């Protein structure tokens, strides 16, 4: 989502919305008629991100909030360039369009600025926020009774980490996703904090792991997928010790790790 934010800012920030089309009414929170009326003629001031949400503040003061959930993705381009996929919501910028695809669980909602802020306040701190120190990280996690897997992906505890990155962070830190935070030493917490930052910075640099390019000619989006060390790598040799990567269900979530070099 951070990759999307960066790339979209250079393409739609400041551009005026010329129309909309709704393929699935459940993907929005107002009627299609109101959605089009509220958006048409407004410009997207910027593209922001909070956790797994993309936020599009409009010149009217209202905010579009996009959450792709599982299976959702977006594409920006002309009608001719659009992938042959079912589009739930389309936002028009003249001859270019933002296509929201696979929003079976996801949504694109329109809120007043205060409503959007209230929703975002329920989320935990951003892992890469300069003010989110190693000490604050340990304080928040140490009291939790779940696994590292469940706590790293808990959006009320930390914002923006999901299934893939929680496994990659644990591998980078040499810790099993099934470990319990209250059992970690301060030294292990320090490793986990540094790994969290390094993995997320690397993932952003290489465009995350979304499978579809954001626009025609986009060679960045999805570049981190090939750099994943354990996620979806079951049976492949560990890049650190050579033992096969295994899949285990941790906290009712699929999880990948190396039983050889993760402790």
Automatic annotation (TrEMBL):
SMART domains: Fapy_DNA_glyco, H2TH
InterPro entries: FPG_cat, FPG_N, H2TH_FPG, Ribosomal_uS13-like_H2TH, Znf_DNA_glyclase/AP_lyase
GO molecular function: class I DNA-(apurinic or apyrimidinic site) endonuclease activity; damaged DNA binding; oxidized pyrimidine nucleobase lesion DNA N-glycosylase activity; zinc ion binding
UniProt EC number: 4.2.99.18
Enzyme class per UniProt: lyase
Example GO biological process: base-excision repair
Keyword list, A-Z: DNA damage, DNA repair, DNA-binding, Glycosidase, Hydrolase, Lyase, Metal-binding, Multifunctional enzyme, Zinc, Zinc-finger
Superkingdom in the source lineage: Bacteria
Residue stretches in coiled coil: none
Family: Belongs to the FPG family.
Protein name as annotated: DNA-(apurinic or apyrimidinic site) lyase
UniProt source species: Paenibacillus naphthalenovorans
Phylogenetic classification of the source organism: Bacteria, Bacillati, Bacillota, Bacilli, Bacillales
């Amino acid at each position: 989502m951070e990759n999307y934010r960066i790339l979209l800012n250079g393409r739609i920030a400041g551009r005026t919305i010329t129309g909309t089309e709704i393929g699935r009414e459940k993907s929005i929170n107002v009627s299609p008629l109101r959605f089009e009326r509220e958006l048409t003629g407004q410009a997207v001031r910027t593209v922001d991100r909070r956790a797994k949400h993309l936020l599009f503040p409009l010149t009217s003061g209202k905010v579009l909030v996009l959450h792709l959930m599982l299976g959702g993705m977006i594409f920006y381009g002309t009608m001719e360039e659009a992938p042959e996929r079912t589009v739930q919501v389309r936002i028009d910028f003249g001859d270019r369009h933002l296509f929201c695809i696979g929003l079976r669980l996801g949504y694109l909602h329109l809120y007043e600025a205060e409503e959007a802020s209230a929703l975002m306040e329920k989320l935990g701190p951003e892992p890469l926020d300069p003010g989110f120190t190693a000490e604050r990280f340990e304080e928040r996690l140490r009291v939790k009774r779940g696994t590292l897997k469940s706590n790293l992906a808990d959006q009320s505890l930390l914002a923006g980490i999901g299934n893939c990155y929680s496994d990659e962070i644990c591998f980078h830190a040499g810790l099993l996703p099934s470990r319990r935070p209250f059992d970690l030493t301060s030294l292990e917490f320090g490793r986990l904090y540094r790994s969290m930052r390094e993995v997320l910075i690397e993932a952003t640099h290489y465009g995350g792991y979304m499978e579809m390019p954001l626009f025609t000619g986009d060679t960045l989006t999805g570049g981190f997928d090939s750099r994943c060390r354990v996620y979806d790598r079951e049976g492949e040799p560990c890049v650190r010790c050579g033992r096969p990567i295994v899949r285990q269900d941790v906290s009712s979530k699929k999880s990948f790790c190396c039983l050889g070099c993760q402790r």
